[in-house]
Amino acid sequence: MVFLALLVIYLLRWARKNRELKEQQLSEQIQFASELQRPSDIKPIVSNITFKDVAGINEVKEELEEIIDFLKNPGKYLGFGIRMPRGVLLVGPPGVGKTLIAKAVAGEAGVPFFYQSGASFVQIYVGMGAKRVRELFKRAKAAAPAIVFIDEIDAVGKARGGMRNDEREATLNQLLTEMDGFEESSGVIVIAATNKIEMLDDALLRPGRFDRRVYVSLPNKEERKSILKIYLANKPWHLDLDDIAQMTVGFSGAALSSLVNEAAIHALKSGKKIIESDDFLAVKDKVLLGKRKILTYSEEEKRIQAAYQAAKAVTAYWLDVDFDKIGLLTDHFQTSEKEIVSKTDMMNLVKVHLAGDAMMHLHFNDRFTNAANDLKEARLIVQDMVERYGMVQKFGTSPVEEEKILSEARSDVESFVARAEEGILRLADEIVRREVVSREDVKELLHEIF
Fold first, then answer.
1. What is the pTM of this model?
2. What is the rounded distance in angstroms from the CA atom of residue 138 to the CA atom of residue 271?
3. In a domain, 328, yes or no
4. Mean pLDDT, consecutive 10-residue segments, the chain of 450 residues?
5. Position 56 in a domain
6. Is the N-terminal amide bond of 93 cis, ω within 30° of 0?
7. Dist CA 145 CA 111 (whole Å)
8. Is 303 within 8 Å of 428 (Cβ atoms)?
9. Which of 64, 147, 174, 398 is 20 to 30 A removed from 90 (C-alpha atoms)?
10. Do 248 and 142 share a domain, yes or no?
11. 215, 250, 282 — which closes off a domain?
C-alpha cells in the first residue's frame, strides 16, 4: 500500500515537471519567434565628424584616403578595373580612437555609417546573431555607398577551436558569407576594430575579406600636443602644451580627453578662470589610477626604456631586419615577406629581440622587466626553428638545442652591442627627445658615427 502511494506521488511529480518543461520550451519558441519578427533597430548614422576633428593619426589618414576617395568616386576606380578592399581592420590598444577614425572616414566620404558592436551579434538563441548580420548587410547595401563598422570584432570573430559556441560560429559563418558575397560594385566597405588581432579566426584575415590592416598606435609627443589642442579648444587655458605632452607618455587620445576634463574641473573648483599646468599635475595621478592600462614612465624609466629600444633599433638596422619606426612605447619588426625564410633571417630576428636586454646588462649592469615580451618572442622563434623547421642536426623537440641557439644568439648580440654602445646611446637620447625615430633616422646617425 505504501509502495503504491509512493509510486503515485512520483508519477504525479514527474507529470508536473514534464508539463513545466514543455511549457518552458513553448515559451522559448514563442519568444524566439517574436524575436525573429521584431523590427530591426539597425539604422544608419550620418557622421558629422571629419579628420579635422581627429588629431594624432596622420599616417592612418594617409592609409585611409584611398577608401574615402573610392566611396566618393566609385566609378573612377571601377572604370580602371581596380578592386578596393572589402574590409579594413583597425588594430590598436583601447582608447586610441578606432571608432572615431571610422566615423571620420564616413564623414569625409559623406556616406551612411552603420555601427554595431561585435558583442551585439552574440545572442541567447542560436540563429539570432546570423539574422542580425544578414539584416545589417541588407540595409547597408540598400543605402550604398556605405560603411559598416563592427567594433570589438573579436567578440564574434574569435578563432574557432575546441571550445565550441554554436551561436558565435553561426554568426561568424554568416559574416564570412556576407563579405564573400559582396559584388565589387556594391559600394559597401566593412571597417572593424580590435585590440586582439591574434585572437581572430584565420578565415577573417584571408584575402578578399579584411584585405587592409591599419595599425593605430598610442600618440607620440607631437601627436599628443595636437590632441590636447582639440580638447582644449573650447576651454580657457594658459599653459605650455610641450610640458603637458612631455608628462603624458603612454596616454591614449581617450586618456588625454579625461585628463583635460579633470584639469578643467580642478581649475573650476579652485576658483580659477583659466586652466593652468598645475591643474594637470594635480589630476594626472587620478586619471592614471582610473586608467590602469595606461603605461607611463618616470624620467629615469624613459632613459632606461630609450636605451633598450635604441639597442633593438641599431641591431635591427645592422642585421637588415625590417622596421618602419621605433619609439619609447612601440616597435614593429617585420618578419620576412619571402615565402622561404632562412635560418640566418630567423637568427637575426632573435638577436634583435635579445639586444635590449643585452644593452641593459652592459650599460646598467642590471636586468629589467621591460625585456619580458622580447625574451618570450625570441624563445618562440627558436622553438619554431627547432620543432617546426628542423634547423638543427637533430629534428624534433629539443630544449637542449633551443638553449644552445639562444646562448649563441645572446653571445653574438652582446658583442655587437658592446661595439655599438656609443651609437646606441646617441640614438637613445633622440628617442627620449622625440619619442619616435624612423629607420632613416637610425641610418643617418650611424653613418655620422661609423
1. 0.67
2. 55
3. yes
4. 63 68 54 47 83 85 88 82 84 90 92 88 70 89 90 84 68 86 73 89 85 87 91 92 87 90 92 91 74 64 94 95 82 64 93 97 94 93 89 75 93 96 94 87 85
5. yes
6. no
7. 6
8. yes
9. 174
10. no
11. 215
Q: Which amino acid is at 305?
A: Q
DSSP 290-321: H-TT-----HHHHHHHHHHHHHHHHHHHHTT-
The contacts of residue 430 (CB under 8 Å, 6+ apart) are 310, 437, 441, 445
> What pLDDT is attached to residue 18?
67
Whether 44 maps to a domain, the answer reads: no
149/281 same-domain check: no
Q: Which three cell numbers stand for residue 44?
A: 544608419
- Claim to verify: residue 278 and residue 337 sit in the same structural domain: no
Cell for 234? 573650447
Based on the fold, state whether residues 271 and 314 are members of the same structural domain: no
d(CA 251, CA 218): 7
Domain span at residue 104 reads 51-215
Distance, in Å, from the CA atom of 395 to the CA atom of 392, rounded to the nearest integer, reads 6
Amino acid identity for residue 261 in this structure: N
Q: Say how many domains are in the chain.
A: 3
Q: Looking at residue 12, what is its pLDDT?
A: 66
Spatial contact of 348 and 381, defined as CB atoms under 8 Å apart: no
Task: Choose one of 290, 315, 341: the last residue of a domain.
Answer: 290
Do 58 and 207 reside in the same domain of the chain? yes
Buried b (16+ CB within 10 A) or exposed e, 104-129: bbbbbbebbbbbbbbebbbbeeebbb
How many helices, marked H, and strands, marked E, lie in the chain? Answer: 16, 8
Residues 53 and 105 sit within 8 Å (Cβ to Cβ)? no
331 shares its domain with 440: yes
141 lies in the same domain as 72:
yes
List strand residue ranges (DSSP E) for 98-197, in order. 113-117, 146-151, 188-194
Neighbours of 380 (CB within 10 A): 12
Q: Which three cell numbers stand for residue 312?
A: 633593438
